[in-house]
Amino acid sequence: RAKASGRSGWEVHDPAARDDTADRLRLLEQLRHAVNDGQLRLHYQPRFDLADGRMAGVEALVRWAHPVRGLLAPGEFINVAEESGLIRELGAWVLEEAVAQAARWQDQGVDLQVSVNLSARQLADPGLRDWVTTALARRGVPASRLVLEITETALMSDPVTAMTTLTAFKALGATVAVDDFGTGYASLAYLRRFPVDELKIDRSFVAGMTEDAGDRAIVASCIHLAGAMGLVSVAEGVETEAQRDALIALGCDLAQGYHYGRPVPADELVLPRARGLLGNVAQLAAS
Ligand code: C2E
Ligand code: MG
Ligand code: MG
Ligand code: MG
């Protein structure tokens, strides 16, 4: 119980801060239980190709079906998982579940890439690459169906480890995306050296782009930069038609946001039509 006493929280004398520490410990205990007890869920948010309007993939976003507090968003528990190291188990569950879902879609003949978010701590886990490889092999999913998202901030917090891990993912054949781009401090010269495929423009810039000239300029230069570096540009947090049209005019590749669809459980997603022989067989079987 008192194993957490090495944490500086115990030395804090401010009673409010101590309450806070107690709350976090309680949350951590509950989360540990939740991971082992099947309380985690994945929701999927679609992303669309701006050139042809086709659904290109989905991003897996974790939720916690808390028995008392209801469905919690990652903002309520990811930090606690990160700080405690529980992110290792949580992240393994997310990967396993996302790959299993990718396999189900593959069986239905639905051609979708699945994006999974990785935290800084997961990136530094030497076992991560094997986890990914094993999960894909077990389900018979090619690595090309998997996108691994790393925030710009995580990338910069430990660039040496990030480089090693991203290089390994690329060697597997997975796609690597830089998430929340524009909010960290990655210099362009630096970014150039990382083996990344996708730039996800942070939604704070997308949100302001139709009213604020500065935000619009940032979005425009991210798209331009991605193009010049041979990367796919992705706008996150697209909420309006005006934003979508502005992004199309700027030549952005992909878009994701409430305008297209909120994150939902897999069975509530409106899927693109199945393609090819497998798809036809699946449709026949279903009819
Ligand atoms: P993110 O990867 O940048 O994911 C996008 C977030 O923006 C999601 O929040 C999504 O629900 C939200 N969003 C999408 N479209 C819109 C929009 O049009 N407007 C607005 N206002 N918001 C939009 P969510 O699901 O709460 O996730 C928050 C963050 O938690 C994620 O940001 C990601 O960094 C992290 N996260 C989520 N799932 C996982 C996971 O499985 N593992 C790890 N390590 N982190 C995760
Ligand atoms: Mg993401
Ligand atoms: Mg993001
Ligand atoms: Mg974001």
Mind explaining what this structure looks like?
The chain is of the alpha/beta class. It has twelve helices and nine strands. It has helices at residues 15-36, 78-84, 87-107, 120-123, 128-139, 152-157, 159-172, 188-191, 203-208, 213-228, 241-250, 276-286; strands at 40-49, 55-66, 70-72, 113-118, 146-151, 175-181, 198-201, 232-235, 254-255. Helix 11 links the parallel strand 8 (232-235) and strand 9. The chain is globular. The structure holds ligand C2E and magnesium ion (3 copies). One magnesium ion binds at residues 179-180, 200, 236.
**Helical stretch count?**
12
In terms of quaternary structure, the protein is single chain
The structural class is alpha/beta
The gross shape turns out to be globular
Taking strands numbered 1, 2, ... along the chain, how are they ordered across the largest sheet?
A: 1-2-4-5-6-7-8-9
| CA(first)-CA(last) distance | 56 Å
Number of beta strands: 9
Query: Main beta sheet: strand number and arrangement?
Result: 8 strands, mixed, barrel
List the helices and strands in order.
HEEEHHEHHEHHEHEHHEHEH
Protein name: EAL domain-containing protein
Domain EAL: 24-277
